[in-house]
Amino acid sequence: MSTNPESQPDDILLTVDGLKASYDESLILRGVDMVVPRNSVVALLGRNGVGKTTLLRSIMGLIPRTEGHIEFAGERIEEMRSDRRARLGLGYVPQGRDIFPNLTVGENLEVSLSIAGKAGKERLDQVYDLFPVIKAMLGRKGGVLSGGQQQQLAIGRALLTNPKLLILDEPTEGIQPSIIDQIEDAIHALKKEGDLSIILVEQYLDFAKAASDTFYILNRGCVVQKGESEALSPEIISEHLTV
Ligand SMILES: Nc1ncnc2c1ncn2[C@@H]1O[C@H](COP(=O)(O)OP(=O)(O)OP(=O)(O)O)[C@@H](O)[C@H]1O
Ligand SMILES: [Mg+2]
Question: Is residue 221 within 6 Å of ligand 1 at its C-beta?
Answer without folding.
Answer: no
